[in-house]
């Protein structure tokens, strides 16, 4: 996974004539792992088809992370916002486009039409303050993207 490898130092600063390494900006513990943007079959808007479109987030940390207020958004601005939700360490959660019953591993956006463009789009993971925690883009080919 590309984001699990974080350099120990991003820059070198001079402090009193001594070189001091400054830590790299830490990558978010929760990251976009995969986006399945082209659900199987034809896009006719059935709930089954809508739920075949999803974003998988993965907690790279060993500790649980609160996702309250965290958002998943596309380029257009369609936004899913987590309510009170905690993702356990080293676990995934899938955010499906359609309707369903939320659980510890599957969340449902409740939309009645598709979010992710099959011809190219970007999924953004945003902290509750709006800052980008992670993003994943794809083009015209394939049906899913590992980020």
Automatic annotation (TrEMBL):
Residues 21-144 form the LTD domain. The keyword Signal applies. It holds the Pfam family LTD. The keyword Signal applies. Residues 1-26 form the signal peptide. PROSITE patterns: LTD. Keywords: Signal. InterPro entries: Lamin_tail_dom (IPR001322), Lamin_tail_dom_sf (IPR036415). This is LTD domain-containing protein. It comes from Actinomadura coerulea. The lineage of its organism: Bacteria, Bacillati, Actinomycetota, Actinomycetes, Streptosporangiales.
